[in-house]
Amino acid sequence: MGIFSWRQGSLATKLTLAMTSVVIVAVGSVTWLSLRRQQLSFRQELQQQAAIWVEALDLATSDVLNPLDSQAIAKIADRLGEDGLLVSGRIYRQDGRAIADIYENQLLLSDPQVDPFGEKLIDSDQVVYEWYADRLIAGKAVLADGQPIGAVSIGLSTEPLQLKMVTVRNQGLLVAAIAASVGAAIAVLLGRSIIGPLQEITAATEEFAEGDLTRHITVNSRDELGVLANSFNRMAEELRDLIESMAQRAEALHQSEAKNIALLNAIPDLMFEFSHDGTFVDFKGGRGDTILRPAGELLRKTVSDVLPAQLAKLYLKYVERTLQTREIQVFEYEWFINNKRRHFEARFVVSGENEVLAIVRDVTEGKLAQFELEQAKEAAEAANHAKSVFLANMSHELRTPLNAILGYSDLLREEVEDLGYEDLLPDLQKIRQAGLHLLSIISDVLDISKLEAGQMTLYLENFDIATLIAEVRTTVEPLVQKKNNTLSIHLARDLDSMYADRTKVKQILLNLLSNAANFTEKGSIVVNVRQDSPPNPAEANPGETLLFFSVSDTGIGMTLEQQEHIFEAFTQADNSTTRKYGGTGLGLAISQRFCELMGGEIIVESEANVGSTFTMRLPKMVVAEGGNGE
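Structure for Circadian input-output histidine kinase CikA, as requested:
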């Protein structure tokens, strides 16, 4: 009954009771904490008084206990008992037995009393406290030269403490009663300020639910109730506007429906709607021939009645799958119509509780175009392969007469030098340089042809890295000095040897250094070689150790767009670069392919008009495809 009454009570009553209860609980908690704090404070104060008494008694008895002076002890006990400030007081000898009591008329030297508290004091080097209902007992050991010679204890009454606690408790209860009364009054006033607006909002809501959309709430406050009232007024206004606009939208929807129907009819695809058992529910023919009978003859028939058996089975399969997964299903199929093979793409999607919408498109022309594209691709790949084979064969055919020309140019130069026709030497040197340049181009073409034809072979061997770098430096030094550049090489101390194709590694480095020297003028070229070992070199596979060969220059640099194409065959940064600096654009493409064959790569970092850095990363131990080095 109590629960029912509470539920049926007004909001004002509930709010008043709730706030009053909160205030009482809060004030009661604060009062209890205050009483607890005062009690601890009073107890500490009484302990401090007891400690002072014990320290004084310790000083007074330290000289009479060693040696034991019975008369002096008796005087001390009498003085302690004269004022009546202590409720107890004892002096103990070295074994913890009491030998004097402030309220005993004689000493207990002959038959000292056994006192557990005295024994406890002898074993402690601190002041010991024991609380009882009516007193506080405190004591400590008396020391001489660091050794206990006895102990003393006193007892203070707790009656003053209890009187103080009663006073504090009464004050706290009075404050709590006053605070609870004030809280209840505030709760009543606050409840009235809240309940009035709430009642108005409730009445407005009921009228609004009955259909009166013109109701307006007036709440003259800026709190949450004011916000709620303003929100209600805005909602009512927006709802009125919405209802007014719905009629306009209905008319616009009716007008757009005709447009949608026209747009749907313009779509060239066939559209079917099936029930779960494959029965035609709706149908829209595509543009041109519909390859099916008129719509009126399809409705209420199944796919088995209209389509060939295998095709009908396929349709039913995807109808079931679409309804089960609730996801779009896409599939293709062929259908021989009028002795011609036609290709169709069907998309099935759920359109109702147990219905599926199918959109079928004739993709015959697209399939034929795709087939022709694949044939053209295969023909292009075959032509490209034939080109690579042709270039490889032609490169061999060109190198033989070119080597003969170079040989004869060397013989002519020696003959001219012997005969003294030194004015002919520059022309012979030009012939030789042109032949060497042409031989380099043919070698690059041969390499790129082998790479494209998949005929490039790795010849792996162990070789010393420092020796290889020295050979490269000797070869490229004249080219570096030709444009007044400086070359510096830095080798890490832990470098030793690597297992790779020495010729290809050397060719890559020569390509990178030649490019740096060619595109740099009055600048600097820096070569850095280092290795990056795994965290545990002793346990790691040698193939996991990586070598980094970086070539940096202060040349013309490249933009980001130019960097995207530099590793493509027959490509340089741009046409102006080709005209000014020459080259075929094969060097970097071949170098990158060589690195990839050996399980590495070349990375470029460059900035226009600042310089470039090419970094070749290779494993220290290269493993060729097939598991062996050759």
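The two ends are 98 Å apart (CA to CA).
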